[in-house]
Amino acid sequence: VLSIRKREKFNSSKFTYYTVVQGDTLDGIAYSHYGNAQLGWAIMDANPLYQSEIELAPGDRIAIPSFDEVVKACE
Prior knowledge:
- The protein starts with 15 loop residues before the first strand and ends with a helix.
- Helices cover 32% and strands 11% of the residues.
- The protein has a two-stranded antiparallel ribbon with strand order 1-2.
- The protein has helices spanning 26-34, 40-46, 67-74, and strands at residues 16-19, 61-64.
- It is globular.
- The model has no long low-confidence stretch (mean pLDDT 92).
- It is α+β, with helices and mostly antiparallel strands and 75 residues long.
- Helix 1 packs across helix 2 (40-46).
- It has 3 helices and 2 strands; from the N terminus they run βααβα.
């Protein structure tokens, strides 16, 4: 049985924002902001309106948590 991971809570005052463009992937966005494509989960956690990356569409403005907070959540 797969367990569902609880979403991480990040400090919204430290968010930067990014507007999704055609061809973007969650992995690509994570890599461009964090240098690590595997941290896409943090972007999804910071954007609870979306349940999966396939819901992201060009023009959507998404929150990007600070790298420091994401690293702290990984500890």
